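Subgroup meeting minutes
Present: P.N., E.W., G.H.
Scribe: E.W.

1. P.N. recapped why we're keeping a running log of single-chain structure predictions: easier to compare across weeks, and new members can see raw inputs and outputs side by side.
2. G.H. added today's entry (255 aa).
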Amino acid sequence: MRFNKIKQMWRDGKCATLGWLSVSHGLTAEVMARQGFDALCIDLQHGTAELNDVLPMLQAISQTDTVPVVRVAWNEPATIMKALDLGAYGIIVPLVNTAAEAAMAVAACRYPPVGMRSMGPVRAIHYGGADYAAHASDEIVIMAMIETKEGLANLEAICATPGLDAVYIGPADLSFALGLEPLGDNPDPLHLATCDKILETAHRHGIKAVMHCASGAFAAGAVQRGFDMVMLTSDLACIIAGVRLQLDALKATTS
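Output recorded in log:
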């Protein structure tokens, strides 16, 4: 089976980079995959993609060695299994509030006897290899998002969930949970301290911690603080930033 580069990087003690796809188009996915990210996430929760868009976007990412990841819209086994059957090598599950919810997400990603994933990797077996079914449970990365008051209250139990590979911090929703303005890169001391607590708890339980960032500078700080993966930027954010840069340059020289 094709090995999961992210798991290998984590075994080597390296921090991985993750790009984000908010736009549901194969060309956008291909271009982003060619920029050098270690992994790239198709966002079904807040992006424009629907489940029918996932297959061509995964095919576009697969032209590179970038690891394909899908953030599902909800902790729903059927959607998780479908994304995996189409070739996702990582699953991000939002709004995980309890250990039971984390265990359900893990079970959807693992074949029996470890989990409850149904057998039928229609594309994954072609992407992953003929022995996919024998090794998929070891290679697929499952990440649970910690971003609510209940999730924070159950952090220890969630991080202790057998088979969970990482916790993923959703900074804007976490800001809501802390009574703060919902920001991507939140410099508030309470927010930073809470993220560090999540990081420390994850590492104490032998799993990884991922930080969702909006800028390279904030992502660099997260790397220095010990996070194992940083989400750096999205396709849509880059389009907006690039357009604004050129428009501002034009206006500055012609106004």
